[in-house]
Amino acid sequence: MVVTRTELKGIPLVGTGKVRDIYQVDDKLLIVATDRLSAFDVVLPDGIPGKGKVLTLLSVFWFERFRPIVPNHLVTANVEEYPPELRAYRDILKDRSMLVRKAQPLPVECVVRGYLAGSAWQDYQQTGSVCGIRLPAGLKQAEKLPEPIFTPATKAKTGHDENISEQEMANLVGVALTRKVRQISIELYRRASEYALTRGIIIADTKFEFGLLNGKLILIDEIFTPDSSRFWAASEYRVGISPPSFDKQFVRDYLTAVGWNRQPPAPHLPPEVIAGTSARYREALRLLAEVDIEN
């Protein structure tokens, strides 16, 4: 069953993102990860089987693993523990939803980069720096950085997020909170990267979202998924090229090849591209959390 939209009758829908539908349940939120896929900031007409389950199950895996480092918004992902009014939708909600505490999100994406890839590589080629952080000369594409760097960004409702400096983040949320978020973000990245490498995956970079709950800093949204992180297979990693990633690479390559102008509406995807993308997401879940899923 591919789920590209949800409708839970009697449960207020309070938000819809590119991937997630968010419902209000008493004083909590129900976050449902659909199988929708966006590319170049446009939601595609075809869903990717199992994608929402991969995002949810991986987030739950990491939230539980890192709870001793920083609290998070997860209450439960077990449908049998949901309020009675949700259990009628167990077939839709199972493995693709989380009941979470409602926090006040910080107005920034908290990005940690361990390798020179994506926009960081482009920035470095032009300036020798990444988000204002000076890096050694002579680094190559996809090269591991001497130390992970913290590069926050503003959250854009449409289009791409915009990279900002740590000082600009401090202007938004305060110096003390910026330092705390930076320290936690880098610690999470280091620990997850070390673990992932034992499972054959390099985490090139990742982004976190934090919120405040009763004045206390907590992790929210998702964590270390193929949508929030750049995963590379360690066996395919080579310095000097952009390694294939465990996300929508099949889709991006196809859309580029057919000459799509990146404006809505997006074209439909052929079955082999959908299947290849689904397999890549599932492989990330299998390797990292040792979980296999059905559609």
Automatic annotation (TrEMBL):
Pfam families: SAICAR_synt (PF01259). InterPro entries: SAICAR_synt/ADE2_N (IPR028923), SAICAR_synth (IPR001636), SAICAR_synthetase_CS (IPR018236). GO terms for biological process: 'de novo' IMP biosynthetic process. Keywords: ATP-binding, Ligase, Nucleotide-binding, Purine biosynthesis. It catalyses: 5-amino-1-(5-phospho-D-ribosyl)imidazole-4-carboxylate + L-aspartate + ATP = (2S)-2-[5-amino-1-(5-phospho-beta-D-ribosyl)imidazole-4-carboxamido]succinate + ADP + phosphate + 2 H(+). GO terms for cellular component: cytoplasm. PROSITE patterns: SAICAR_SYNTHETASE_1, SAICAR_SYNTHETASE_2. Coiled coil: none annotated. Its EC number is 6.3.2.6. Residues 15-263 form the SAICAR synthetase/ADE2 N-terminal domain. GO terms for molecular function: ATP binding; phosphoribosylaminoimidazolesuccinocarboxamide synthase activity. Pathway: Purine metabolism; IMP biosynthesis via de novo pathway; 5-amino-1-(5-phospho-D-ribosyl)imidazole-4-carboxamide from 5-amino-1-(5-phospho-D-ribosyl)imidazole-4-carboxylate: step 1/2. NCBIfam families: PRK13961.1, purC. Belongs to the SAICAR synthetase family. This is Phosphoribosylaminoimidazole-succinocarboxamide synthase. It comes from candidate division WOR-3 bacterium. The lineage of its organism: Bacteria, Bacteria division WOR-3. The gene is purC.
